[in-house]
Amino acid sequence: MQQDSLFISLLYPNAASYRRHKDAENRPRISMQSCEELGLSTLLSLKSSRLTDFFTMDEDVIVYRKQTLDELSARPELSELLREVQPCLEDILELRRLDREHDSDGGSSYLYSITEIELYARCVKTLHEGLLPLRDSLASPAFQRLCLVISEFAESEKYRALMKDLSALTEHVHEVRSITVGVNLDAQYRPTEAGVISVNADPFKSGKTLDKILRLSFKNDAMTCIAPLTPFGHADSENRQAALTGAFRTAMNDVFKSSVKGWRKIVSEYVLENSDFLLRLLPEIEFLNRAASLMRRLGEKGYPLCTPEVRPIAEKAFDTTALYNPDVALRIDTAIVPNDLTFDKNARFYVLSGPNRGGKSVVTCAVGLAQCLCQLGLGVPAERAVISPIDAIFTHFPEGAEDTIDKGRLGEECARLREIFDNSTPDSMILLDESLSSTGSYEASFIAAEILSGFAARGCRGIFSTHLHELAASIDEINRRSAEKGGIAVDTLVADIEEEGKRSFRIKRRKPDGKSYARDIARRYGLDFEELTK
Hints:
By secondary structure, the protein is an alpha/beta fold. It is 50% helix and 13% strand.
């Protein structure tokens, strides 16, 4: 961990907040499974780290990240700069991996030392040249700090001296184009020992007659090939070629050992001490690149991302205008229908019912995505949002549960729901989508009422998206039981349908009408009385 005075991060305002995050303080419990079920893993796929590493409950961190992303959005040149640096840092990590593997085989790849410093120098140069012209106009604390640190580093005498020495050494190393190999033979012309005789700045010349004619020379000199080493022929096995390549690599390491050996010490003492922070920034850079890409793609389709007003956790705020699901918005060609959704003192938990394919799951995921994106420090997919952080998101989206009544599956669902309840707190968000579909309506409605009563009494906020329209009849009893325990209120939302069963994808806060949904299903399959009697 860097000293506080040297600390730099694009996602954390100071070393203390970074340490708290690494120690899992102020980090909400949101699993990768929940990210996948909500569609967040599709929106923000990462290679260098896990998405769950970036969630935070720290309001200062959320504000700091939003400042960083606002500047990225306003300055396309910054986004391009981070995209240019990311593969260079990934190459350094890959180089270190190869170096470890090489050392584990008993060799010492001294040339990796030079390559690593060259890559670092390229990163520093790219950042310095990209940030320097913007130095006086940068607005976010993150980029101001990065510009300052990179400028001090790149403009220091020690760094300039390092680059001068590096230039001389790499010129010596990179000018090597061939080596002369000597092989001693026994009386039967079998090789007894072999070694590198010289290192040459010129490649050797082919000994083929046509090449001699083109060079107008028929002389055999020290740089003319008399016969090729057969393992490099097209017909030779990979094992034979690999064996010869390995032998040459080991020999070359020995050749350069004396001149390059000192660079190992420089890498460990100078580069790692002064610029290894760039590697620590790699996951942050990748995260910001993916976030900027998401913002750009949504913007190109005309969808807004608002800066949420972050309220204290104790307020349990969630108030959005024109909320939409960004995962669905990017996957369909038609415009997605936004909805206003608010958790208030009269409803911290909703039962969302309505017809199949009416938008219940889309809205349930939209709520979870808005909460997640807020706690990643990103914009929220809405025109306006007021949100308090949560300490956990628990999702229960059983796949295919509606296809059949399965008592075994019901047991698994109940066990999972109990596990969610046991791990939840009053500051958690619970998102249930078609839970308990694996049993009959009577049993499911009873169990659902019990579960909702428990979550309400605990004080969780969330949504239970369900086909159980009759569950609405239990809301008053659920609220009575919750109030006795000092819990929160539950209310109902409905995915509306228009005339002739057309889906509006509008979510309205009212009591459900189960008969209308049943009529819609009967009409769709031609089972209504009017159709049957034609």
